[in-house]
Amino acid sequence: MRVDEHFLDEIKSRLRPSDVIGRTVKLRKQGREFVGLSPFNKEKTPSFYVNDEKGQFFDFSSGKNGDLISFLQETQRLSFMEAVERLAAEAGLPMPVADPRAAEQERQRQGLSDWMELAAQWFEAALLRPEGKEARAYLERRGLPESEWARFRLGFSPASRTALKDYLVTKGARPAELVESGMLIAPEEGGAPYDRFRDRIIFPITDARGRVLSFGGRAMDPQARAKYLNGPESPLFHKGRTLYGIGEARKILAAAPGAETPPLVVVEGYMDAIACQRAGIAGVAPMGTALTEEQMERL
Hints:
Blueprint: H1 5-14, H2 17-21, E1 28-30, E2 33-36, E3 48-51, E4 56-59, E5 64-66, H3 68-76, H4 80-91, H5 102-128, H6 133-141, E6 155-157, H7 163-170, H8 175-181, E7 184-185, E8 194-195, E9 200-206, E10 212-219, E11 228-230, E12 243-244, H9 246-254, E13 264-266, H10 270-278, E14 282-286, H11 293-298
Helix pairs in contact: 1-4, 3-4, 5-8
């Protein structure tokens, strides 16, 4: 049975390597990592490191490294599928049923993910172009200097109806898949799809590993019908499972000194989460008014 990358990523997003590995290897916090004695060789000086941010272990005495799956394979002599099944059970995920469509769905998700990343880069560049002048001024007024924009991948969507669409189509995207990703809107009455985000400051919504799932946009026009706008549900983006800022929040938690248990706070919106993270507080924001059980599991 083949397990698609989406399912493996879901497992890894729910489990911290230091928690799982720490049950068999005595670990202590050291800066951004955890360190302990090698489970592969006898040693007196610790050379085994676990990095939650990267989701990896590194053993310098044996030269071995990998993720949680390979750790279980190496230390407990499990097959790949046995390791996946054990971790899935720990993460509270049922194993997927064999489905001939699964490979095609995974290929489709990867294609959409590639277009989302390219769009994020385009939005980032647009913020720095002349048309992003007012958006830059707004961010500065909110106390968010240019030196921080790249950290949070902030961008800008011009007021043009098809600027993003035109750019991505020239790169080979099909309008239908851009509609499916949520970046374009297909009019109900028919007609050509157009950009969902127009004249807005863009906040990329990513998973814990930094991959772009969707976007949120803050309107520059004070008369806009919706001040803040999220992308719709898509094969990549599920509002009830996603927390804005989760990747950056986990970096902050991972960087905390070993003796400290830093707080993780849930705030209302994008700018609130960014303000927390700039202050060294692990802040995240849900995609709606209520915090779901699935979002709480990611905390």
